[in-house]
């Protein structure tokens, strides 16, 4: 059995996952998901998942060893933001052709590309991604990367997660393994402290982490590494010297958090920065872990004072929105940490959750939702497009929050929709983010355009009631789309 196959099996057999722990050993080795069929990775293959996790490391050159389309179709697939380097926004690919593959020039071309990137851009490191084509023809990217690292005196990291290996979530976990094997622990920081933490599974979408970091700065808590959002290579390489960690999206990097705890004794917890109470709880848990690892107990008092101050300010700003949103019904089609944390944050301002997708949520995520909603009937493992459309068109909800793939269902039903996934343009994390979320929901629900679009079109006014019913039924039957729950 190849080392790569063993790595994939190890990623599936995750002891920190509650669902895996409840399986017998034989079932656990079969993996977390059903085998993929051709075309099933259209929503994201393992190469795409690995790139999602690693590309936000902003001072690294990300080189795709593949024909041009692999990079062209995966570039800029998330709305992560950087406060500094922009190198990660540059596409690098070996652009393999049929001639390169047939004549066996691909590994030579890869080595040459690494040299050119090093000379032209002087990156902190180069990550080299294997893809379906280069994996099938047997290119040894690990050997090429090792030779290039020795020759050019720069970290060259092989990312062996070809698309056919599995789903996007498997690619997330394989990227975590890459960081453990080749990056984390390779650099010793010269200024370790008792208040150093790691934030794992935070992608800084639309700059969300920038709404949280000032809170940590006020507590003198230093983020040694935020992986991967707005990260730098040296920060990730020295992440093993943090005293504690917070896991934001366990579906993506639970294996990274667990193994860092095993290797370097970095305790972690899973939390969220969505919502007022969740943000406060996360800050308290961070402070508790740091005190447990040797920080001054005064940190607990300062954290509580900050929480009280920020909560009071946030609730005061939310007063204008609460009367307008209280009692409004929300349909959520999300996944990961958002499946429970957004539920909690919306209920805080008096909104009613009529349903939430849990297809890509962990067992722990689902248990949290059950405790919050106290009604399992509001949990949907998978919702067909026709069912989503029916719920909205029959006005069982006042707004749908989801990713971009399902927005057209809401628009076809002439119902408000708000992007809560990675393509969004607003940051919703922390206390300020909660106010922004309430504001955007209020703007969407009370937009006067909905009253106008719901008016019958001129050519419909003469239709009989029976004809209108037949027309709506035909539209719903012909409508199809992908409704899988979105990621963290």
TrEMBL record:
According to its UniProt entry, what is the function of this protein?
A: This protein may play a role in the biosynthesis of the prosthetic group of nitrogenase (FeMo cofactor).
Q: Name one GO molecular function term.
A: nitrogenase activity
User: Mind listing the UniProt keywords for this protein, alphabetically?
Assistant: Nitrogen fixation, Plasmid
Q: What processes in GO biological process is this protein linked to?
A: protein-containing complex assembly
| Superkingdom field | Bacteria
What family does the entry list?
A: Belongs to the NifD/NifK/NifE/NifN family.
- According to the record, the residues making up region (Disordered) are 468-488
Protein name stated in the entry:
Nitrogenase iron-molybdenum cofactor biosynthesis protein NifE
Nitrogenase/oxidoreductase component domain segment(s): 45-443
Pathway participation = Cofactor biosynthesis; Fe-Mo cofactor biosynthesis
